[in-house]
Amino acid sequence: QVQLVESGGGLVQAGGSLRLSCAASGRTFSRYIMGWFRQAPGKEREFVARISWNGGSTYYADSATGRFTISRDNAKNTVYLQMNSLKPEDTAVYYCAARPEYKYEYEYWGQGTQVTVSS
User: Fold this and answer.
1) pLDDT of residue 101
2) How far apart are CA 2 and CA 26, in angstroms?
3) Which helix (H) or strand (E) holds 114?
4) Residue from 46, 40, 20 nearest 106 by CA
5) pLDDT tens digits for 33-64?
6) Cβ neighbours around 5 below 10 Å, total
7) Which DSSP string do the residues of the chain spell out, in sequence order?
8) Which residue, 34, 68, 97, 111, is most buried by CB atoms nearer than 10 A?
């Protein structure tokens, strides 16, 4: 069982930066692939980025490539999403999620943190 708690959201002007954190409970955090997703009002939840168990492999949605960086610190049971050059269209609730390497579906989800980018 993994419990996830996101933090770091807030209101920022376009062009600004935010760093989201996701703290995980459980001793098996390092065994999970971690991902960030987001959901804007009236839209479906969409994938943003993911990172392998050891941080050696990352993958980004086109919308995040070049602006966002996902990282993790297994010693702190935490995954991060550094977001730079933010745009109003990045406004959404951001969720972190965890899944075992052998599964495609994410099993555990956080409660989300709101990111609002003003123009």
Assistant:
1) 87
2) 5
3) strand 113-118
4) 46
5) 999 999 999 999 999 999 999 989 999 999 99
6) 14
7) ---EEEE--EEEETT--EEEEEEE-STTGGGEEEEEEEE-TTS--EEEEEE-TTSS-EEE-TTTTTTEEEEEETTTTEEEEEE-S--GGG-EEEEEEEEETT-SS--EE---EEEEEE-
8) 34
- How far apart CA 96 and CA 112 sit, in angstroms, is 7
pLDDT for position 29? 81
Nearest to 77 by CA among 31, 118, 11: 31
Structure tokens given for 100 = 């075992």
Instruction: Give the amino acid at 79.
Output: V
End-to-end CA distance of the chain: 40
Q: Tokens representing 24?
A: 């995980």
pLDDT at 27: 66
Q: Which residue has the tokens 């954190």?
A: 21
Find how far residue 48's CA is from the centre of its chain. 7
Asked if residues 106 and 100 have their Cβ atoms less than 8 Å apart, the reply is no
Average pLDDT for residues 79-99, to the nearest whole number?
98
